[in-house]
Amino acid sequence: MFGPEGPSVRELAVQALSSVERGYDLLAPKFDHTPFRTPDAILDAVGSALRSAGPFDAGLDLCCGTGAGVGVLAGVCRERVTGVDFSAGMLDVARERVTPTGPPVSWVRADARALPFAPAFDLVVSFGAFGHFLPRELPVLFAQVRSVLRPGGCFAFPLVAPPRPGSPGYWALLGFDTVMRVRNAFWRPPFVMYYRAFRLGDVQRGLAAVGFGVELQPLPEFGRRPDGSPRVRLVMARLPDRAQVPG
């Protein structure tokens, strides 16, 4: 699961018994050598889709981690790119490893549930971070994203189809979520990472509730499942061109 440059079992155990923020501070130097980093294939596919939808002026990578998604934004944004994360350790690694090749890049430490920005972005992306938010937190998260987008702005993120019930992937995710729930029942502070809690129907309803129009774009690079549905979709949530207050 982890290469020789990845974290040891002991390091993972220490991380798992920490808070989310402290855990990622500890993991940051080796994060890019774990399966938790978004694969380049997904980053490239999202970048290709966004180039067709763009260009954009200012972009924000929400929960940017070590900055892998910032490269996607740098390829589609003309003026500036910002990465925001609440882990100081992850941001330190991002500053060291990400070399801007397009618009200038800035890094901001902040909680995604309380973003310190005006409506100054045309595009917000996020990769692999939603498992760190409980379902009840999604309305706040989506409202925060809406608050930093200009009229007509877009919130885009990939969503992998859940594994079929009874498949090895299904049991692996169920087992992981069960272990996390048991851990959080007996240990404080909690470590929120639930891979099965971010469901497409809930996401669509939550985005619509704060004023987004939602489109689902298949990423053809990943093909389709036996039932014909896409293996990976790009969720494209757009605001109307003129600011409106949701009813």
TrEMBL record:
Question: What is this protein identified as?
Answer: Class I SAM-dependent methyltransferase
* Record domain Methyltransferase: where: 60-153
Which PANTHER family does the protein's record reference? 2-METHOXY-6-POLYPRENYL-1,4-BENZOQUINOL METHYLASE, MITOCHONDRIAL, METHYLTRANSFERASE
Keyword terms of this UniProt record: Methyltransferase, Transferase
Question: Which InterPro entries does the UniProt entry name for this protein?
Answer: Methyltransf_25, SAM-dependent_MTases_sf
In the record, biological process GO terms are: methylation
One GO term in the molecular function aspect is: methyltransferase activity
What's the source species' lineage?
Answer: Bacteria, Bacillati, Actinomycetota, Actinomycetes, Kitasatosporales
CDD domains linked to this entry:
AdoMet_MTases
Q: What is its EC number?
A: 2.1.-.-
What Gene3D superfamilies does the record point to?
A: Vaccinia Virus protein VP39
One matching Pfam family, short form? Answer: Methyltransf_25
